[in-house]
Amino acid sequence: MTGPDRQDALIAMDETTITPVPPLETPDDILWDGYPLSRSGRVLLAVWGLFLVAGFCVALSLEPDPRGYGTHQRLGLPPCSFHVLFGIGCPSCGSTTCFAHFVRGHWTAAMRSNPGAFCLALACALMVPWSAVSVWRGRLWKVNQPATVCMWLLLGLCGISLVQWLVRMPWN
Question: Binning pLDDT at 50, 70 and 90, where does residue 33 land?
Fold first, then answer.
């Protein structure tokens, strides 16, 4: 292409505006920089961390029920209503027993009691130091988008609990 046609093509290329496409959200975007915390956010996160520690202390004070469920009754709570009404355990049956095994390092027994609760106990155990580091830094450590992380964590835990419950149903 020579002459005026080439010149017109070059002018057209100069006038073309290319709009950059924003990059897709990657796990690095979600995890690395850290969402900033306000003073009240830091206080709430510190209280949350202490609440988790208190929960583990309660679990440590309970002797796990050998049946794999029912440890919560040692706290004066009634038996599982779902189990009483329908004769089968609910998705959270065995959770307190799982936590009681978890804090003692009996992870196989904890997993047998309730795999979903085992994953929850593991997540809570990891949240204790994470909360402390986040409070100290004033930013959520390695979490830029807390709502997204919480959503995936909750969906994962609920999914695991539902699957383990369906596997334990009497027809299996």
Answer: confident
